[in-house]
Amino acid sequence: MPGTPRPRGALERIRRRAGHDPTPEQARRRLRAITSLRLAPGQVVAAVITALLGVALVAQVRAQDEAGLSQLRESELVALLDDVSGRVDDLQQEVLELEADRRRLEGQQGDVAAAEAARERLQSYAILAGTAPVTGPGISVIVDDPDGGMTQTMLLDAIQELRDAGAEAIQVGSVRVVASSHVGVAEGAGGGSVTLDGAVLVPPFRIVAVGEPDTLAGGLAIPGGFLDSLRGAGATVQVVEGDEVLVDAVRPTPDLRWAEPVPATPSS
Amino acid sequence: MIPLIGLVLGVLLGLVVSPEVPVWLQPYLPIAVIAALDAVFGATRAALEGIFNDRVFVISILSNVVVAGLIVFLGNQLGVGAQLSTGVVVVLGLRIFSNVAAIRRHLLGA
How far does the signal peptide extend, from start to end residue (chain B) (predicted)? Predict the structure, then answer.
């Protein structure tokens, strides 16, 4: 068409006459006619339809703003999925690390518990070995025996009865009674006096035992027992039960030269 | 001018009322809007060419919207909804461009 001016001009004339291809002047005149506020019925219909279009446009834009994943394209969804998967991986890694941390910390707590258990065991061993002073409910027995009527057997009986009655710590005079305690007799001017771990018991002295007070007192008071025999020998004995008696005599930590623990054998 | 005022009023109304798009309409509304836009530009061009006819405008805009919706519906039924929607949008976009180019030529002679 551009290369043939004559037919083109003829065609243009025809088309312009038919109104299909207006000159710019015609077009501007028509534009002015449209833009003038003339209430032609066609304009009103067009206005109603364009108003509907405006509402639909805004509604669609709004819907697009609020649109969730369903409005996204496949590639966007894939990218989103990749993103989320990566994040999930990261978080799972973090979970693993945190769980490892937790296990480590729990292990430390186990160490604390073990240390606590060891400390308690050490405490009970200290009480049994007599290296620590002890207080608690128990009885206090005051023995006044000016005639020296108490025999070695009577003291052994007393210690035996107290242990049998569940005494956890015993002190006779100023001597703590422990596993290695022994009762002996010292030859002296008065015919003989009882010794405990080599120390002479000079009356009046006190026997203090920590344990259940009633049981301890009952153990000493059985017929033919410690109290009976001592009173029969002419001594005065007084038993006092207390909620808080003090065993304050201590012993140095024994220095064991010979005994060694047998190593634990895993097979047994 | 009055159609332009109508468009502005419609946009304002939509902004004020902010209508909720029903779910069944959601796939069709964007295509319908594009189709209507195409009809509006076509109408503008026709007005400049002096052949604007309100009946033709109404029928063209309605048929554009309905056909666009039908194509999307068919595409969804056939499982090629996304591709068909893209095709419709491309065609309508081409038409909008050619209409705008014609309007520009008519008004500016270039």
Answer: none
pLDDT in tens, B31-49: 888 998 898 898 888 888 8
B29 vs A59: CB contact, 8 Å cut-off? yes
Do A60 and B58 make contact, defined as CB atoms within 8 angstroms?
no
CB contact under 8 A, A41 and B1: no
Q: How many CB atoms lie within 10 A of CB A213?
A: 21
Contact A26 B50 (CB under 8 A): yes
Q: Assess whether pLDDT exceeds 70 at residue A158.
A: yes
In this structure, whether the domain defined by A135-247 belongs to CATH 1.10.10.10 is answered with no
Q: What's A71's DSSP letter?
A: G
Return all residues near A195 (Cβ < 8 A) that are at least 6 apart: A183, A184, A185, A186, A201
A6-18 pLDDT, tens digit each:
455 555 555 555 5
List the structure tokens of A239: 């038993």
Nearest chain B Cα distance for residue A70, angstroms: 10
DSSP B19-67: PPPPGGGTTTHHHHHHHHHHHHHHHHHHHHTT---HHHHHHHHHHHHHH
**B interface residues, A as partner, C-beta within 8 Å:** 1-15, 17-21, 26, 29-30, 32-33, 36-37, 40, 43, 47-54, 57-58, 61, 82, 106-109
Q: Where are the domains of chain A?
A: 5-65, 70-129, 135-247
What string of DSSP letters covers A114-153?
HHHHHHHHHHHHHHHHT-S-EEEEEEEEEEE-TT----HH
Instruction: Work out the angle between the directed axes of helices B29-48 and A24-35 (0-180°, nearest 10).
Output: 120
Q: What are phi and psi of A210, to 5 degrees?
A: -100, 130
Q: Which of residues 25-64 of A touch B (CB under 8 A)?
A: 26-28, 30-31, 34-39, 41-60, 62-64
